[in-house]
Amino acid sequence: MNKFDARVSRGSLNFRVVTDHADIPDLVDLAREAHGESRFSYIPFSAEKVAKIAKLALKDDKRHGIFIAARGAVPIGFAYCTLGEYHIGTDVLIATIHNINVSREARQRLAGGRAALGLLNGVKSWARARGASEILFHVTSGSELERTHRLAKRLGYATIGGSYVLSLNSRS
Known about the structure:
The chain has 172 residues and is an alpha+beta fold. The chain has five helices and six strands.
């Protein structure tokens, strides 16, 4: 199948591509929660930046994808990805997952794993439908790295490097 179905339901969970500005407040809330758990939580959160990214994605859904996982009507996770050429190459499209998160409450239940899996499968379908040759999955949250690594490996992602950080202030 080479077309991404914008709405998919699996049991009590449903997944959708964000296509409406009405979803932006939910995305801001989900991003705020993800930010609060991340290594970068010391940086002031900007709801305005999240809204700006979401609006850009809504304008250009061929190159930007935002996905929401919900339990009933309650959003519990999201993913944001882009599609473009490799930064020093041409003619090949690569999808990049910039952010994916499932709420802490959902991660403590079976639905959390299903939500993460559904979001990653949504990104895969979306990327395939747009002709991507690969998906890069950047994990820089500093949170639940082993769990994320196991899921990525189970889904066929290969490790091609790592993310490193050097703090230049008193933060460890």
